[in-house]
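Hi V.,

Quick status before I head out on leave. The structure for the redesign project is tokenized and pasted below; the design run finished overnight.
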């Protein structure tokens, strides 16, 4: 059984795949959702192989990008950053669990900097996934680099 946050994330990934053209090859309907827990990427273009991350957040206002967005696992992200690999980011803002109240923003990889990735405190010893560490996207200083697609 999935949580409400997982359902929201799934909805955002499906929305990007359905409504966005591939930023690299510009083809429509070629973005496909990757399997759950694929590291650092959520969609792939089945024509050119373009990979991107999708993050979905609830929002009262679709016109304002939040300062901080929850990321995923810090370990794989840090490894890629050490290798100078950054994945483009689709940010889906949703006013509800339906696709009707949504906005999609895009941030290309070349407009990202390492300082937007802020590691979170590892989960405590009594947590279900003790020791797991996530990160937060702090985009407060780079909101002007996002492009609204929808």
């Amino acid at each position: 059984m999935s949580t409400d946050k997982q359902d929201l994330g799934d909805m955002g990934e499906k929305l990007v795949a359905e409504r966005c053209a591939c930023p690299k090859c510009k083809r429509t309907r070629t973005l496909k959702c990757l399997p759950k827990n694929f590291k650092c990427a959520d969609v792939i273009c089945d024509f050119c192989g373009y990979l991107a991350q999708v993050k979905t957040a609830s929002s009262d206002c679709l016109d304002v990008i939040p300062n901080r967005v929850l990321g995923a696992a810090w370990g794989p992200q840090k490894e890629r950053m050490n290798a100078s690999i950054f994945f483009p980011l689709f940010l889906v803002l949703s006013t509800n669990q339906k696709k009707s109240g949504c906005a999609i923003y895009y941030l290309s990889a070349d407009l990202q900097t390492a300082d937007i990735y802020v590691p979170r405190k590892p989960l405590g010893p009594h947590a279900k996934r003790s020791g797991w560490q996530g990160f937060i996207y702090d985009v407060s200083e780079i909101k002007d680099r996002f492009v609204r697609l929808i």
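Above is the designed sequence. The two ends are 30 Å apart (CA to CA).

G. will cover questions while I'm gone.

Best,
W.
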